[in-house]
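name: query_chain
kind: protein
chains: 1
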Amino acid sequence: MPELGLRLEQRGRTRRIDGEFMQSVVIVDDRATNRSIFSKLAGSLGDDIEVEAFAAPDPALQWIGGKIPDLIITDYKMPQMTGAAFTQQIRMLPNGMDVPIIVITAYDDRAFRLEALEAGATDFVQTPIDHQEFVSRARNLLKIGTRQKLIRSRAYALAKELHDVEQERQELLRDSRDRLAQVIDTVPAMISASDRRGDCVFVNAYQTALLGGEADRCTGFRGDHAHRSQQLDARVFASEMPLPAFEEEVVDGAGKTRVFLTTKTPLKSTFNMVSSVLTTSLDITERKRAEEHLHYVAHHDALTGLPNRLQLQLRLEDAIDGAMSTETEFALHFLDLDRFKSISDAFGHHNGDVLLTEVGRRLTEVMGKSEDCLLGRLGGDEFAIIQTGIGSGSDAEAAAIGLAEQIRHSFDTAFAIDGRSIHTSCSLGITLFPRDGTTVEVLLQNADLAMYRAKSQGRNAACRFEPDMQSAVRDAAQLEIDLRAGMLREELVLHYQPQQDTQSGEITGVEALVRWNRPGYGIVPPDGFLEVAEEAGLMNAVNLWVLEAACRQAAAWERKGMPTRVAINLSASLFRHHNVAQLVTAALGRTGASPHLIDLELTETTNLEDHESARLQIVALQKLGISLSVDDFGTGYASFTYIEKLPVNRLKIDQAFIRNMSGRAEGSAVIRAIIGLGRSLGLRVVAEGVETEAQLAELRAEGCDEVQGYLFSKPLEAADFEALVRSQRRQHAMTAMGQPA
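structure:
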């Protein structure tokens, strides 16, 4: 008898081999692709799932008329009828009110959602949706449906049994009530029933324990919730129809708010009259928390915890609506870190992520607790700030510029990361609504353009958007296109700047410097294209080309009887992505260059992550006769790491120190310290950027070994350098013969 209702529910179902009944899921969608996707997702709910898919509602209704499924998944937009109308048809079927129904649509229309939910839909999902989230929702609804059917069938069976027993034997009434209590007490859900007077017929142990024993004796609930439950019961008695499942908050005995999925179903007597209302409430608090977490993840950046691009776009739309209604303006700041890629390459991507997190914290401090500013991360090293409450006209512009300068100056203090002080700056682009754009897309695009103008003006600056920036962006894009094509057409060339001994004046070597012979523009210096090459991911290709070309030239000069040491700049990124020892050895083999004529320069503004690996590669090259120099010594991040951990041969003093020599005691002191350091470590010291005789005299007096700069020669083409060498040789020969040079 207790299982009678359950057997009625299982009529027409398929049995598994082990005798258990299969759970059936019905898919209704006029698109075959969607039917296939949701059929596969439904099939993944478990081994006991039987899926039936229909292309239209009518065949599905005919099939469902014979047996009620455990879950229905239906599209909202269908040719014959909407998902809401289909849901109403299901709810009108016998036992159709409790079937969980998920309505799916790709349209973000609140009216669709409301219509479907009012028609009795259990859940409403907008595609695209994460498959794992969809499966979790469907599985939860299957569990809820199964439990509700079990509860209802048991309650129906027990109520009927109680009625029959009461007619037969009044003395068994108390035993029947005990059996009823034992059944409902085994279910981990709040279960109660109330009659027409509002008196509680029964309440299970779970509900009593959850509410702390303070439940109303009439309803089984407490306070306002008891009154609300009675009102809903009255609707069930009036309609004699169950209410669709709904979510509600319940405060438990410990004072904690929980979320329950509740159903109210009429219980009929043997005379087919509704005698009481069965209320079942399943705790879905954890599911709601998971949904809230998914919403948070979808709208926040995983690294910094700041609002992400999606959230910023939504808030921008709100800001636009607010500004239009109040006829005011707001500002959008587009922030990009300067040289972030170099810093990330220098210290590793992990520390790059740490820097981004610290930048987010510092910007948050700048914003303070102001409700007029929203900070978010767009992605990479890009951040955005929406600044509202700035009025309009000149006041709005002044407020935007003021905040931008405050942000910019917040970067004056170094960031402490992994025991290092890392200095960086930022470039900002500013747009004002509505003068610089009236849509989210245009405001972001124009703020991005303004930011790039700030970068092109030397970085560490803030720029307001101006209409002429569109053409500048097109020029930058064209530069990248031409550079890629130019590398394929071998338009890169090398110029060579001589280095000479401070005592003898003889040329000791050259530094190979890359140039771009851009058609229609002539020779483009490095600062005109290397930044674009780095942003476009072409720097490794440029480095490898320079290595090959410089080795080829060194071999050519040696064959001509003028062997010359050639210094070649290498970026630290080559050591991360390539075996530099193999690359250089291969280049020497292809070109025939002598190893002792090759000097590899590592700039101190980059950092090697794996010093031991780099050291082994450099030692292997030095065994061949190749030397290693540290370029721009004293200016960058590496400090003394290179000379401490790598077998260095030379230090090159950066030209910034040379410019500060004349008339400045601290400038001379720095030069003296670097030369002293080199001498104590047995390293040769080369000074770059020497342009005056006074600088040369001071460097010579301090004991600098070699010098390089425009005082002696600008960077030359190979042929011009050969002419310079021949001229110097003639002068030395005439001097040796006692003839005037």
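note: The first helix runs from residue 4 to 9.
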